Fold D-lactate dehydrogenase.
Amino acid sequence: MEILAYGVLADERPLLERAFAGAHDLCCLDLFLNRHTASAAAGHEVVSSSVNDVLDAPTLRALADGGTRMIAQRSTGYNNIDLEAARALGMGVSRVSCYSPYAVAEFAWTLALGVNRKTVRAVSRTREFDFRLTGLMGRDFHGRTVGVLGTGQIGTAFARIAHGFGMRLLGWDVIENPECRALGMEYVDKDRLFAEADLISLHVPLLPETHHLVDAAALARMKDDAILVNTSRGGLIDAGALVETLRANRLAGVGLDVYEEEAGVFFFDRSLEVMTDDTLARLMSFRHVLVTSHQAYFTQEAVGQIIETTVRNVADYLAGRDSENTLVRPGGRS
């Protein structure tokens, strides 16, 4: 069987090809899956998608018409897939339920530290042989308060690092994590966390209940010198409200690895084009905002685990097995 993989990055391709070697043929495409590119999958029973593919109802219908019966998503999040449409079409859908939490947690700290110590601005200066320290003063994280929204595996890994810095830990989640409790974390409601934290990091999934979790009201509650970091999903933050907050000269800094309208922008070279997303362009114009293109997960360990799980998901589909990674059972399976 030949499997078609969409949205394959250059560094990811050799890992994918090596993982599937000897089991299945693999065709890797660097273009992303959407209703306009779905026709490329004609004749492929199994398609592997990436986090920035758009698997809405029209896309899934086009895939199904071409003979696709299984979607193996190479990510934990699946808010880009219309699961109800897949179920109606009898298509199976799987995801990667977990991979190295350290990849994302460590990168969240990379953003937090980079924003706090103004690292990007400092490097830009020294490349121009400007070695002044004016405007580069940061703060110690030691002794300050960190607010962690979402204390699953990634949030817990982030909290362990915060504990190592000697920070006071505040947490918010629907279920309290004993590991975080053991670190001294105090679970509080969102309003108190937003009001007391010097550093806020988001580690919750994007669900209807968490969409715009950080809205204008939440931003208003934050300290004027707070730092906000998001390495989870862009839709957790109301980007328009964030721009207005920054325009009001509030927040010491923001680190974003995700953005609500990142599809079609992140993972592409847009350097020779006019940026038509005014909100993203405005965010990137602030000197104390650091934006990266959804790379928090991008380590050898994490990508390797994602690919290994994807290979197992395909094997489970062909064997008629379900697993913790199954989101939608293929049609006809009881």
In short: The mean pLDDT is 96. The chain has two domains: 2-99+299-328, 101-291. The CA atoms of residues 114 and 120 lie 7 Å apart. Residues 101-291 form a domain with the Rossmann fold fold (CATH 3.40.50.720).
